[in-house]
Amino acid sequence: MDRFTTLRSAAVPFARDNIDTDQILPARFLHMPRDGDHGACLFRDLRCAADGAEVPDFPLNRAGWRDARIAIGGRNFACGSSRENAVWALQGAGIRAVIAPSFGDIFAINCVKNGVLPVVLPAEAVASLVAEAEARPGAEITVDLEAQTVTGADGTVHPFEIDPFTRHCLLEGVDELAFTLSHEEDIAAFERRMGRENS
Amino acid sequence: MPPEDADAPRTMFEKIWDRHRVLERPDGQVLLYVDRHLIHDGSEPAFEMLRRRGLKPRAPERIFGTPDHYVPTDTRDVAAIPDPALRAMVETLERNAAEHGIRLFGLQDEGQGIVHVIGPEQGLSQPGLLMVCPDSHTSTHGALGALAFGIGMTEVAHVLATQTLWQRKPATMRITVDGELGAGVTAKDVILHIIATIGGAGAAGHVIEYAGSAIRRLSMEGRLTLCNMSIEAGGRAGMVAPDETTFAYLKGRPYAPQGAEWDRAVARWRALPSDPGARFDREVAIDAAAIAPTVTWGNSPQDAIAADGHIPDPAEEPDPERRAAMADAFAYMGLAPGMPVDALRIDRVFIGSCTNGRIEDLRAAAAIARGRRVADGVTAWVVPGSAPVKRQAEAEGLDRIFTAAGFAWREAGCSMCLGTNGEIAAPGERVAATSNRNFRGRQGPGVRTHLMSPAMAAAAAVSGHIVDVRRLAGN
Ligand code: SF4
User: Fold this and answer.
1) Choice from B38, B114, B232, B411 to test ligand 1 binding pocket (greatest atom count within 8 A of CB)
2) Which end of chain B offers a freer environment for a tag, N or C, measured as fewer CB atoms within 10 Å?
């Protein structure tokens, strides 16, 4: 897993509430292998018309946001389907941090497991970041995981919370599986205990 | 690990959570032991992650798989699947299962079906178990009093390798539905009404326990429908306390405990319901009598209204963000403000999915279809949730009722719920569907989905437009 420390980039806004993972990565791309080009399918049906032509005013097609590495979402961002492919699509398009007032539970978990940072900020802070981005598409903001802050293009600093273990995993680029495997004996002990209780 | 205060009244969720704690991390996340791990034909990336690390499934006897998402519903022959990409999904699942000794309900197996239909049907889903599956509708299994939730692929790999999962303890919410459900009102209407009431993120971060007299009276099929759509309210899981309905449903199923084991299990299960005085973080009360046959109009399951009602007028919506979202939905769905919802003509009907593809659902749809004809220009499909549901329906003659009325009778699978098997509608088509998501493009790019109960979908099929089932029933 790639480490996440500090990221400075344009921030592309998808400001609607309840954007679901079916929008982020439409179902017909779900069978692609993990190393397929998920990034090319990000928001495919909103970004492109049926004939494949780009929809000019969709945020990802606008000059300042094509190479954005940070996304901003509305409330309940990425709700719905548990498809981790939605994270792979964001990641494949270069996005490493997503800021929103709230996330679909499973999506936020999936982000962290892939080294993508989900940042929860109060709705007003998100609204001001969206307004700034729309006023100056391409203006850069900074997400600093060490300091747990988002710094807007206008210099406003928004602190955010994240649980320490998740922060540690992201900062160091370590994944949970190795940590859990080091506790194999605890799992085996649990299994022995459970076998006794259920018989 | 005993809970901090073993004598305090606990919710059913807390009892199951406590019983599955292996370890706790300093940040409060808990390592939970997984009793049953369900997988499907989209689970290959997790096996790939395992292979790359040189790991193997820790407890293959706890894993059960079935092909459902990618299988066409016009054949049971893997070799006959025309699209090589889809065929490969099914073959890879077969290979992974064979290699690791995982019980597979394959395409030719008499138990095959949608993963959330076969779990309860086989007796794999039981009270008190902790179950996961890489699909957000895993909440379905909570209808039997299990704690069951959907997980992502990296988490699947973690469960495969360790049989455990790290979780932060969710909050609890009890939704109590008291009173009598009216004529034509089903579990599907109840859950759509609940989601419209609390919102699509109304239960975010919470495990829901459904309670109250109207829930107690629901059949197991109804409870499965109810718990299935918990995720559409943002819930982590949905649960119903086990009772005589649960035990009667489970008894004698292939994976249910047998003999003396059964009696011991029932004794354990009787201690599972939430203790009197157990505290929930949130309580919601719903009046059963206020629920009508319900249908969705927009692109979120929360956009649900009574089937005899009118589509709202965005101009009357005070919140500008919500107003803009409604305008998007109106454009996509081809709606006019204030129009009666039953004026909407439909092109297709899909009866099936893990929400409403069980035998009772097909019986309810057949009761409407009997002696009627699918309206001209409408394509209507019935896709049983599993092979056993299909056999049962055929034994009861439901297939003949459907085909005589002009419905297509298909093999079991997810089909048009998600369309990953290629079964989708055409752009601009309007679909009456018994599945769980009306998201933009869910049933194909440009497709307009309206969610409803099986009886309502059958009524739409024979009427050619959305209609309140109460106008047909009993004719
Ligand atoms: S029927 Fe639909 S919701 Fe259910 S498992 Fe299949 S795709 Fe998922």
Assistant:
1) B114
2) C
All residues of chain A having their beta carbon less than 8 Å from the beta carbon of residue B196 are: none
Residues of A within 8 A of B162 (CB-CB) are: 177, 180-181, 184, 187
Q: How many CB atoms lie within 10 A of CB A48?
A: 18
DSSP characters for B366-386? HHHHTT--PPTT-EEEE--SB
**Residue A37 DSSP SS3:** coil
Please state, in angstroms and rounded to a whole number, the distance separating the CA atoms of residues B26 and B198: 34
Q: Do the Cβ atoms of B317 and B49 come closer than 8 Å? A: no
Size of interface A-B (CB pairs under 8 A): 154
Chain-chain contact of A81 with B158 (C-beta, under 8 angstroms): no
- Would you call B204 and A105 a contact, using CB atoms and an 8 Å cutoff? yes
φ, ψ at A157 (rounded to 5°): -100, 125
Ligand 1 mean position, distance from CA A94 (Å): 30
Residue pair A102/A120 in contact (Cβ under 8 Å)? The answer is: yes
Report how far residue A57's alpha carbon sits from residue A12's, in angstroms, rounded to the nearest whole number.
12
A35 Cβ contact partners less than 8 Å away, ≥ 6 residues apart: none
Task: Measure B147 CA to ligand 1 centroid, in angstroms.
Answer: 19
- Distance, in Å, from the CA atom of B65 to the CA atom of B94, rounded to the nearest integer, reads 9
List, for residues A59-68, the tens digit of each pLDDT value.
Answer: 999 999 999 9
How close A153 comes to chain B (CA, Å)? 23
Q: What tens digit of pLDDT does each residue of B301-357 get?
A: 999 999 999 999 999 999 988 899 999 999 999 999 999 999 999 999 999 999 999
Kindly state the DSSP code that residue B365 receives in the 8-state scheme. H
Q: How far is the CA of B195 from the centre of ligand 1 (A)?
A: 18
**A152 phi and psi, to 5 degrees?**
-70, 170
Please tell me if the CB atom of residue B71 comes closer than 6 angstroms to any atom of ligand 1.
no
SS3 for A129?
helix
- For the record, the structure tokens of B395 come out as 């034994």
Q: Which of A168, A169, A142 is nearest to A154 (CA)?
A: A142
- The pLDDT value recorded for residue B5 is 63
Whole-prediction pTM value? 0.95
Pair B71, B45: CB distance under 8 Å? no
Nearest CA to ligand 1 atom 2: B417
pLDDT bracket for residue B289 (50, 70, 90): very high
Partner A contacted by B323 (CB < 8 A) = no
User: Ligand 1 atom closest to Cα of B417?
Assistant: 2
Nearest to A102 among B48, B150, B201 (CB): B201
* Angstrom distance (rounded) from CA B337 to CA A101: 30
Sheet holding A97-100, edge to edge: A117-120, A97-100, A70-73, A6-14, A140-144, A149-151, A157-159
Q: Which of B268, B285, B134, B115 is nearest to B197 (CA)?
A: B285
Q: A118 pairs with which residues across the strands?
A: A98
